From TrEMBL:
SMART domains on file: HTH_XRE
Entry-linked CDD domains: HTH_XRE (cd00093)
Pfam families according to UniProt: DUF5753, HTH_31
Domain HTH cro/C1-type residues, every copy: 18-72
Protein name: Helix-turn-helix transcriptional regulator
PROSITE patterns named among the record's database cross-references: HTH_CROC1 (PS50943)
InterPro entries: Cro/C1-type_HTH, DUF5753, Lambda_DNA-bd_dom_sf
Native source organism of the sequence: Actinoallomurus vinaceus
Transmembrane domains' residue ranges: none
Amino acid sequence: MPVRPRPTVRLRRLAGALRRLRATKSLSREDVSEATGINTATLYRIETARVRPQARTLAALLTLYGVEEPERTQLMQLLKESGQAGWLRAYTDELPEEYSAYIEFEQEALSVWNYESLYVPGLLQTEAYMRAAIPGGMPSLTREEVERRVQVRMERQAVLDRDQPLKFWAICDEAALHRLVGGAGVMREQLEHLVDVAELPNVTLQVIPFDVGAHPGMPGSFIVLNFADNPTVVYVDSMAGDLFIEEEADIRRYTAFYEHLRAVAAHPTASTRLIRKLSERLT
């Protein structure tokens, strides 16, 4: 049997936007089918990124949902680009489009595996840590832009305590816990928060101790997003820009990296003890 092509990140974004637009209008697939003539099975495949809609089909849906400019043009452009795999773009002064896409996928993911080499994972950061880390890493941001990033990151954390919480597995290098982001007081609060959040049943936190030596995560951070009914996507945030990785061989490589990091990292219980010890040193 022929293998169905993997949906690209852009196609998944388009599918997710169409699902949300239909939900906002409180329409069933049968309602949309009756109003537009689009078969319900076809609409299901469009909304789950199994097929790429035709331009006239997308236009009919956007009209039904009352989508106006500039969102309409943005979604039509997303359709044009939906056959392109991968996605890399340098940072801009505004919230990068790729970061916005990542947030959408994070909301839909069944589980997320996050490895960080120099920062505390974003979903586990305190507000004070964010306010020091964001401008420290991107000094060109204005005060308003920093505030926007902080608010977005705080809102993202809601995925950990919603009705069906995200299963979050975080691994960080011990170096991230020693760096005094925001000063000793901020870092002590951050470490205490890590101890608390590690007790959540849907959160697993591991630390790679210094004495492990060299390991595959040293070149940089990455995130693996796993979905219930869509292929895995890897997201890499670097100084060059944000990158979505979709090729199967690359995903296997990053997944293998993460499995190796799980093996070399301290057990979650030992990781919590290490975090407590570092917190006590700052007291």
